[in-house]
Amino acid sequence: PLSTLIRLQQGLLSEEGSGKESMRVRTLWFGTATLVVVSVLFATVQGVCTENSSGVMPPPKTGIVPAFAGAARALAPRIRSALASTCRAAPNLARSLVQNPIKKLRGRATTRHGDVAAAAATGLRGTTSSAATSASSNPLLASADFPLYDQVTSEHVAPGMKALIGEAETALGALEARLVKDNYEIKCSEFLAELERMSDRIGRAWGVVNHLKAVKDTEALRNAVEAVQPTVVTFNLKTSQSEAVYRAFKTIMEGPQFASLSPAQKRIVENEIRDAQLSGVALEGEQKERFNAIQQELAKLSTSFSNNVLDSTKAFTVRITKKEEVVGLPASALGLASQTAVSRGDKDSTAENGPWIFTLDGPSFLPVQQHAKNRALRELLYEQYITRASEKTVAKETQMGEIAGAIKDGTVGKRQGLVMLAKRAAQKIGMSEEKSLDNTPIIEKILALKFERAQLLGKRHHADVSTASKMATFEGAMKLMEDLRAKSYDFAVTEMDELKAFAKKQGFEGDLKSWDLTYYAERMREAMYSYQEEDLRPYFSLPRVLDGLFSLVTRLFDVEIVAADGKAPVWDKDVRFFQINRNSQPVAYFYLDPYSRPAEKRGGAWMDECASRSKTMAAAGEVLRLPIVHMV
Questions:
Q1: What are the residues whose beta carbons fall under 8 Å from the beta carbon of 588, sequence distance 6 or more?
Q2: Buried-most residue among 213, 243, 430, 592 (CB within 10 A)?
């Protein structure tokens, strides 16, 4: 039966364009789905049975799984061929099958498979579900005071952003028509308010999506972002390159009302004109098309770069079972390593006896470099850390069991989960290449594209584009760097010589390597100042640090920071929410996400805007919308 299905599938694909399309569509959908399921089953059992590359059915073993595995492998070449034909003839067929609402094919069939594939290619329906398409059920479209972080899932991204962009494009078209009709004459305050209303909801919703991707990353969310990102970039280009909007700002600056504007309004007008020019508003024809293509590619490359860094950080761990291999590490580092081990299956792990698992995440990596006497362990982690997202990085596979578990617990929608399973199956049977985590070609492409973009804008290089919106200049920045180098180099050489001498006194022989420097610098500091960093740790627990920080802010700015946990939804149980008061009235809010989560949160620390302070976007009955930020 499977062989018959394969032949039928290939025959249907070779007959595209002939009559009886409805029947072929039904059979084609069924055949593709069946082949995907067979591939998934084949890939699932592949890991539990011995490999057989002869192409001949192996002798039966005990149990149904080994027997099925042998049969699947024997049919593998034909399965690959059928799937290859399907992919060549309809590259978006499988994806549209599971990602798009499809009308039932019983009776009247009104959806052509070519139309469905075209819709899938747009990416906007890539993560649509019947629940997510409704505005009332999509948290990205809610008009709540605070983002509904606890409700937003990957399936909300595409329909939510599609709806918001559609509204904004309509508003932009109406504004442009009005500006042309009025010869680009418009009151500045009214103009700025209209632009803010047009872009605010999109900015907030896209900000929520990108924030979740940074702090709660999943494969499903990545797929959703990648699907809708080109549409978001296209809309941003449409607004920033709007000739009508640009000419209106020029009319304001060159007209009589400019002199009566406040300094802040004048600055906004000047910045909008500058930013439009840097966005290619003056380009025409092929130059504009190329500029826009570069912007799309840079957005895609930037996302891939960040994903690769996070994935390569997650891909490496080292498990230690012997106490002598962790000598020197403080109790806090061993405790963290034990917690990591417990979370990865070593349920009996303790900080005292292990086993311990170390990762490339900062709180795990840095203590090893500072305190571990085990030089081989320091070297191993150091080399893995500095070669993250390089040709030496091996991607960690998402196992099918993990995907199935995510579907079961609701983390991933059923349709999206099926796409992920099909992708992994294709990789297992050789239909698709494993994703590379090497950022080297991405860096090279980014550099080349930014240089080309600068040339299109009439600049020497990207540094000129970057500094066009800053107080610094390229020449000034280079001069500062050279001044710092010249003044610090001799001191650096002296300090290195002192460190080498100290290490030699400690019994070290040979040349100090990069993984030795931090370790001996820490020992030297302890010897010079007679204290250890761990001795200070009890005095700098998070509650103490926050108390000290908030007290200082109160004295400096005459405000009060109070805990407001529960007032706003959060994306993780450890996230805190605070309210800033002045004269007992709220003036701002902020989220605090202080802890590392290497499996889903990118490294580093940052602050980002969640909502800006605005009179225009104030809720009904309110004078202001208060600002909200993330502190991560």
A1: 579, 580, 613, 626, 627, 628, 629
A2: 213
Give CA 59 to chain center in angstroms: 47
User: How far apart, in whole angstroms, are the C-alpha atoms of residue 311 and residue 300?
Assistant: 16
**607: which residues sit within 8 A by CB, 6+ positions away?**
629, 630, 631, 632
Residues 103/109/113/115 CA torsion (nearest 10 deg): -80
Q: Which amino acid is at 608?
A: D
- One-letter amino acid at 289 equals E
Query: Does an H or E element contain 299, and which?
Result: helix 285-315
Q: Is 558 helix (H, G, I), strand (E, B) or coil?
A: coil
* Cis? peptide before 355, omega within 30° of 0: yes
b/e 46-83 (16+ beta carbons within 10 angstroms → b) = beebeeeeeeeebeeeeeeebbebbbbbebbebbbebb
pLDDT digits (tens, 9 = 90+) for 517-565: 999 999 999 999 988 888 888 899 999 999 999 999 999 999 999 999 9
In sequence order, what are the beta bridge partners of 356? 320
Indicate the residue type of 619: A
Using CA atoms of 578, 153, 228, 422 in order, give the dihedral in degrees to the nearest 10: 150
Tell me, what amino acid is at 568?
A: A
Contact by Cβ (8 Å): 261, 234:
no
**SS3 assignment, position 106:** coil
Strand 628-631 to 560-563 pairing: unpaired
Q: Which residue has the tokens 């009890």?
A: 538
Residue 177: burial class (beta carbons within 10 Å; 0-12, 13-18, 19+):
exposed
CB 632 within 8 A of CB 606: yes
Q: How many residues does the chain have?
A: 632
**Predicted local distance difference test score (pLDDT) of residue 56:** 35
The answer to whether the CB of 122 falls within 8 A of the CB of 226 is no
Pairing of strands 585-592, 628-631: parallel
Coil, strand, or helix at residue 422?
helix
Give the ranges where 90-135 is alpha helix by DSSP (H).
93-99, 113-122
φ, ψ of residue 377 in degrees (nearest 5): -70, -40
β-pair partners for 357? 319
Contacts of 285 (CB under 8 A, 6+ apart): none
Residues 6+ apart with CB under 8 A from 447: 462
Alpha helices by DSSP H, listed for 506-561, are 514-529, 533-536, 542-557
Give residue for tokens 């020029």: 250
- pLDDT under 70: residue ranges of the chain: 1-136, 394-400, 402, 405-406, 408-417, 419-420, 423-424, 426-434
Tens digit of pLDDT for each residue in 297-326? 999 999 999 999 999 999 999 999 999 999
pLDDT the model gives residue 48: 38
* Rounded Cα gap, residues 512 and 92, in angstroms: 55
Please report, as a single letter, which amino acid is at residue 270: E
- Distance of alpha carbon 173 from alpha carbon 235, whole angstroms: 12
CA distances from 487 to 483, 491, 493 (A): 6, 8, 12
pLDDT score of 416: 52
Strand 576-582 to 585-592 pairing: antiparallel
Longest Cα separation, the chain: 90
**Structure token digits, residue 4:** 């018959």
* 2 burial level (CB within 10 Å; 0-12, 13-18, 19+): middle
Calpha distance 209→200 (Å, rounded) = 14
Cβ atoms of 420 and 412 within 8 Å: the answer is: yes
